[in-house]
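User:
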Amino acid sequence: MRLFIGIPLPALLIEELWALSTRLRSDADGLRWASSDTWHITLQFLGEATDERFNCGLARLRELHSPVVPIRIEGFDFFDRAGIFFAGVSVVPALLQLQQRISAATAQCGFVPEARPFHPHITLARAKGESRSLSLRALKARIFPQPEFSSFVADEFLLYEVFLGSAASRYEIRAQFSLGKR
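Assistant: Predicted structure:
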């Protein structure tokens, strides 16, 4: 099974992101837009897991205690080399601490923490093909001024299983973990 850990988004933020991303879309933009039911903030990508590693990770994550996390969207940006258009998330200390605690907990089960710095975001679209840079430049030109979004307080994180498909991936919630409770 292929797994990752993330923070789900509240309905109001999904509505705001959907309204703006719908306005930005173009039939000729060459982008593959993510479905709003897949939007989340990734805390750790775990990758492939055996049943043993899954059960170990589940147990370690259930032991994890962390306060609720304030979430604020910073606006739209791009990972140019990867061809990804995203809504950036502010890295507040509580979010960074949660991500680090999750990585430490899952490392006990053999999951390898990400080597790159933590860059929380919500993936909205991916550029495909050779014209990737042209697609992203055209999209960049349509984003002005940067929008403002509702903030929220994350009171949970989820363990998702990924089911890869030819058109799009599908995510299924495997476990839910509360924040702020002891």
